[in-house]
Amino acid sequence: MDLGIRDRIAFVAGASRGLGRAVALELAREGCRVAVCSRDPGRIEEAATYIREAAGISWEHVLPVACDVTDEAQIEEAMLRTVGHFGGLHILVTNAGGPPAGFVDDFDAAQWRAALELNLMSTINLCRHALPHLRKAAAGDGLARILMITSVSAKEPIPNLYLSNVARAGVQGFAKSLALELGPEGITVNTILPGYTRTDRLVELAEAIRARTGSSVEEIERGWAEANALRRIGTEAEFAAAAAFLVSARAGYITGTALVVDGGRVKHLL
Ligand SMILES: NC(=O)c1ccc[n+]([C@@H]2O[C@H](COP(=O)([O-])OP(=O)(O)OC[C@H]3O[C@@H](n4cnc5c(N)ncnc54)[C@H](OP(=O)(O)O)[C@@H]3O)[C@@H](O)[C@H]2O)c1
Q1: Domain boundaries, the chain
Q2: 201 CA distance to ligand 1 centroid (A)?
């Protein structure tokens, strides 16, 4: 299926590894020009090289930008660099690392604020600074998309992930509000909620649980897999395929939705 996004311009945040990088690669394979950001200049350069090689595309079609998405000034600068390099913006994918695992007594107010900055405020600020460019795209050739990477914890809180549970719920509220406001302008806004997917973040989570419970990493992963209808942990490529569809021309009538990509972990009817 041709997703209809050849030569469109995308910005993918939190893209030096894991889900963000996988989405950027999928978009590059679909013919998008892609700006990728993360905090570390070396890591994001490496990711850009990986994406160019894996997608078999030329050097200038992937722009690595060092940007900490908790810093609004860096977001503004990253958007301007992207638009300066590629000449516009059609697709924004928001993302960042996950906050630490823990229970209610494990975090002080500063840690709560840091998690909200990392996962909620970064999303809001990325959208705010992308919006003028997305509005131009919508008014011009008509394709403008926002996709926010959140977590299944937004639908069904995960017991040891307080910080994530709360920040993601805020993102869902923001996304739905934005979808309603931007719909008349033809800009779609959706969220995509990964379940357990094999990335470095998953290794960190397993390690945190191992340290607390003494269970082995293998036992923990087996438990995660068995909670899913498909009885396995997902792959980055499976997640990226769903994300690419949601930002594609083919998904023109989908907005305000929250798509779980979790192998059937969430048990709600709807
Ligand atoms: N993998 C899963 O099973 C799963 C399940 C549910 C939800 N999620 C959520 O989905 C998101 C992505 O997951 P993942 O597994 O891909 O995580 P990951 O492997 O930890 O990758 C996170 C990415 O975000 C970048 N990043 C972190 N902090 C940043 C910041 N302040 N500014 C800019 N970039 C930043 C990291 O690069 P640098 O270090 O170079 O900045 C890295 O590229 C996370 O929020 C995670 O909690 C993941």
Answers
A1: 9-261
A2: 7
Q: Best mutation site among 201, 236, 238 for ligand 1, i.e. most ligand atoms within 8 A of its Cβ?
A: 201
- CATH, domain range 9-261: 3.40.50.720
Segment 207-221 shows an average pLDDT of 92
CA distance 156 to 145: 26
Give the containing element (helix H, strand E) for 144.
strand 144-149
List the structure tokens of 165: 């549970």
40 in ligand 1 pocket by Cβ < 6 Å?
yes
CB atoms within 10 A of CB 268: 7
| Cα separation, 118 vs 43, whole angstroms | 19
Residue 141's pLDDT is 82
Mutate to test the pocket of ligand 1, among 38, 220, 232 (most ligand atoms within 8 A of CB): 38
Does the beta carbon of 95 lie inside 6 Å of ligand 1? Answer: yes
Name which of 13, 18, 23 is nearest 199 in CA terms: 18
Best mutation site among 19, 94, 261 for ligand 1, i.e. most ligand atoms within 8 A of its Cβ? 19
Structural contact between residues 27 and 12, judged by C-beta atoms closer than 8 angstroms: yes
Residues in the chain: 270
pLDDT digits (tens, 9 = 90+) for 83-111: 999 999 999 999 999 999 999 999 999 99
The pTM (predicted TM-score) of the whole model is 0.97
For the stretch 114-132, pLDDT in tens is 999 999 999 999 999 999 9
Q: What distance in angstroms lies between residue 109's CA and the mean position of ligand 1's atoms?
A: 22
